[in-house]
Design goal:
Order of helices and strands of chain A: HHHEEEEHE
CATH class of the largest domain in chain A: Mainly Alpha
Distance between the termini of chain A: 44 Å
Shape of chain A: flat
Strand content of chain A: 15-25%
Oligomer: homodimer
Structural class of chain A: alpha+beta
Largest sheet of chain A: 3 strands, mixed
Number of helices of chain A: 4
Radius of gyration of chain A: 17 Å
Chain lengths: ~130, ~130
DNA sequence: TTAGGTGCAAACAATTTGCCGTGTT
DNA sequence: AACACGGCAAATTGTTTGCACCTAA
């Protein structure tokens, strides 16, 4: 595999983002630096970086995915009001995978834990402007 | 909200399915009984049933969602070789949500745990026909 | 030199929506 | 009668792909 400025930039943008950006968001941040880059390249490289294990993909029930610089197993929380995705502090996510392996004989390779609800900041905002 | 034969049937099909079907799969099973039903109706009612909390939606990283009759919090395992989604036996999924609530102040309402890897039946099949 | 990568646009897949007719209440 | 809901098809959204040109190795 060849090194390209595009891929390096896409990787850097994800690493510099703490907000779990969607592919389109990565695209617009990357375009701020390299205006001619194409959306296809962003998707291609995000997918590639995921399969290389350098970044992580977080699929949402509302459609689409978010991307995360942190590869280490951890959990996420998504507020259904403001849509923000944050890291959830939970010890022992790995312990779950171990428990599954022992109980079922299946071989888990990655674990995605997603909580959905209302975040601290949005509590009480229901039925008001989002 | 009105009761309709379509919605009842869609709900029944999901409840009678133990294989976590995709929307298209629900559609084809429903059509076996009611050939004129439209795909839009299936999507509309699946979404409605999810928002009523009568069934559960499982988003996949590979795109699309699966649907599950079991509303109670539990975990899933998806084999990346055969694609099958099965229930993962894990005690105390609720305990995780409690831990998150205590630690962060966010209010989790639903929890989705997805393991991806290679299932017992597919171990050793890598690089062979899928 | 040359295989792999990019840009672009068209193709795709999954899902949602607008419109209008119909069956329930 | 009023209106929620379904059928149908078009529209959207998110993502992938074919192709011709370009560029790192």
């Amino acid at each position: 595999m060849r090194n390209t400025v595009q891929r390096d930039l896409i990787y850097k943008v994800v690493c510099d983002s703490s907000d779990h950006p969607a592919a389109e968001t990565v695209y617009s941040r990357v375009r701020a630096v390299m205006p001619n880059i194409s959306l296809g390249t962003v998707y291609r490289n995000l997918k590639l970086l995921v399969s290389l294990g350098k970044i992580r993909e977080i699929p949402l029930a509302s459609g689409g995915s978010r991307f995360d610089k942190t590869v280490m197993a951890h959990a996420h929380f998504r507020c259904r009001l403001c849509g923000e995705v944050t890291d959830a502090e939970l010890g022992s996510v790995d312990a779950l995978a171990d428990a599954l392996r022992r109980a079922s004989g299946n071989e888990p390779e990655s674990t995605e834990i997603m909580f959905t609800g209302v975040c601290r900041k949005c509590v009480g905002k229901e039925n008001k402007a989002v």
